[in-house]
Amino acid sequence: MSERKPYPSDVSDERWALIEPVITAWKAAHPSVSGHQGAYEMREITGAILYQGRTGCQWDFLPHDLPPRSAVYSYFAKWRDDGTDQTIHDLLRWHAREKRGRSADPSLVVLDTQSVHAAAGVPSDTTGRDAGKKVPGRKRGLAVDVLGLVVAVVVSAASAHDNATGIALLDRITAQSDTVRTALVDQGFKNAVVAHGAGLGIDVRIVERNPADRGFAPQPKRWVVEQTYGTLALHRRLVRDYEHRPTSSESRVYWAMSDVMTRRLTGASTPSWRSA
């Protein structure tokens, strides 16, 4: 790593050891026509992506002692489009689950959606208004395991019904794993999701709220997805949707969770914005 003052988002030696094999294999599979290896270290590129995700800054406002936006965005886009970001994320999730004594893939997932405001520059044809939550922007759908680790993510216009998001999540889950047998959802999801899950061999159960509850009341097992949304909120790039493409928004979730999991796996603390 080049000599500069460190940022809290920098990738330590221990954390880089978890990511580096995937990046090295990717580089080997994508050689430059000229044989040039690139002017910037992949560890610095990865650190710049995590820096932006954590701080929420614009591309043009990346610090001058990090690689330039042209290089960082180029790799971010390439890894988004060919699925390298998800490969890194999924390998880390398997590692994190196995470290907790669980199988690599879960048998139960929890589905939920979150509508977030879109920034001014986000194309209008990829956004909408969530009529129920009165939020103009995009809808972020997550499927998480019982540890709160992300199994699948889908980003769409906020106007999309939870059913559409739920169906898309179930399709993505089954496309990458055949172990999921049960999915818990809230009352925002309807029978269409239950029927679609049945067709995929997944028992979708609608967890109903206790009528006696007042205010926010965590539901057994389902609460973990709310915890995941709270964890993602520590990454300011995800507090609002700034991305032109929904696939970029999905990539931001993968990078944020990869950041979280590498810290958990190496015992590193995750600094909060309230830290001194």
From TrEMBL:
Where is each Transposase IS4-like domain found? 105-206
Q: Which Pfam families match?
A: DDE_Tnp_1 (PF01609), DUF4096 (PF13340)
Q: Which residues form the Insertion element IS402-like domain?
A: 11-89
NCBIfam families linked to this entry: transpos_IS5_3
Protein name in the entry: IS5-like element ISSco3 family transposase
Report the source organism: Planomonospora alba
